Amino acid sequence: MEVGPVDTSWHPRAACRGADPELFYPRGRGSAGVARARRICKACPTRQLCLDAALAVPHALDYGIWAGTTREQRRRMRQDRAA
After folding, report:
1. How far apart are CA 33 and CA 41, in angstroms?
2. SS3 of 36, please?
3. Residue 11: Cβ within 10 Å count
4. How far apart are CA 36 and CA 15, in angstroms?
5. Each residue of 39-77: pLDDT tens digit?
6. Dihedral of the CA atoms 24, 30, 35, 38 (nearest 10)?
7. What residue ranges do the domains of the chain occupy?
8. Per-residue buried b or exposed e for 64-78, using 16+ beta carbons within 10 Å of the residue's own CB
9. Are 60 and 53 in contact (CB under 8 A)?
10. What is the mean pLDDT of the chain?
11. 3 pLDDT tier (thresholds 50, 70, 90)
12. Single pTM value for the model
């Protein structure tokens, strides 16, 4: 799948800006890091833009927390969109 340019103009307004990136790439299932990352994402003014970017970029489906979603949630979203 070819991916065109992804809009990143929203990055400076993201609630995660300045947060430790490791927080959004927790190790292990059920990690406390997932809950902390989701709390940051929940209040983010750019959450929808982040989710749109994550669904547009294939590698984002496999790693980390994006817009408060896990990779499993994003995979289901992409499958639903394709159906």
Report:
1. 12
2. helix
3. 13
4. 12
5. 999 999 999 999 998 888 877 778 889 999 998 899 899
6. 50
7. 11-82
8. bbbbbbbeebbeeee
9. yes
10. 85
11. low
12. 0.82
Q: How far apart are CA 10 and CA 73, in angstroms?
A: 22
Helix orientation angle between 32-42 and 47-56, rounded to the nearest 10 degrees: 120
Q: Find out whether 66 and 60 touch, Cβ atoms under 8 Å.
A: yes
Give, in order, the Cα–Cα distances in Å from 80 to each of 15, 69, 72, 74: 27, 15, 12, 10
| Helix, coil or strand: residue 18 | coil
pLDDT of residue 11: 92
Enter the DSSP assignment of 44: -
